[in-house]
Amino acid sequence: MHRFFVSREALDGDQVALSAPVAHQIKNVLRMSPGDHIVVLDNSGWEREVELTEVSAQAAHGKVVGQTLSNTEPRTKITLYQSFLKGERFEFALQKGTEVGIVEFVPVISARCIVSSLNEAGRKITRWEKIIKEAAEQSRRARLPELSPAMFFREACVRATRAGQLALIPWEAEGQRSLRAVLESHPRPFSISIFVGPEGGYEDSEIAAAERAGVIPVGLGPRILRAETAGLVAASAILYTLGDLE
Fold first, then answer.
1. What is the CATH number assigned to the segment(s) 77-241?
2. Which of 15, 81, 205, 239 gets the highest tally of CB atoms within 10 A of its CB?
3. pLDDT tens digits, residue range 31-44?
4. C-alpha distances in angstroms, 62 versus 17, 159, 169?
5. Is CATH 2.40.240.20 what the domain over 3-69 is classified as, yes or no?
6. R_g of the chain computed on alpha carbons
């Protein structure tokens, strides 16, 4: 069944009122009609099966006929601190990171980023939220990953390590500590932060600043990964190691 995230205000008891954009997709794109079933999600973790009762291009209504608590969200909560990338590469990281199971994205301005101001960084928030929402619906997520405001790298390092949380920074020059070794040396964490730099990577001074803040450099193997894929590989490896892909 097709899945749609809706606001909590769209639910009134067992009645569901779907917005115009969703109604347009249901009627004109999916060619659905009264009697068809969809799944609606209000970002609470519950999946509600809904039978459509009215469908038009401007609005659609339905009735809840069943609900279950989703089991698709990972136990390990991963936040990706992704430095800005050129073109559509940042959007790729958001889309595929959502599919993998990342629960929060934090856009980061680091030294080699093409973006240098927070105002410039905030111009694409609406588009990025749409990309995340569509990826979450497609990948059967029960909760929307959070898209946090952009911040500068050093501020992000302090945020990620607050209260002793585990924060990792994959770095091609790290030859001693592998991701797996670090994970195995720590008690199972509830949350993990991953830092990924822009094209060209981090400057040595940034790695040093991250270490001072408590972020741990780790290696991801002998091959060099692109900036838009490094976070996805690290997140997948973490979820696999901790049993979240079983």
1. 3.40.1280.10
2. 81
3. 999 999 999 999 99
4. 7, 42, 46
5. yes
6. 20
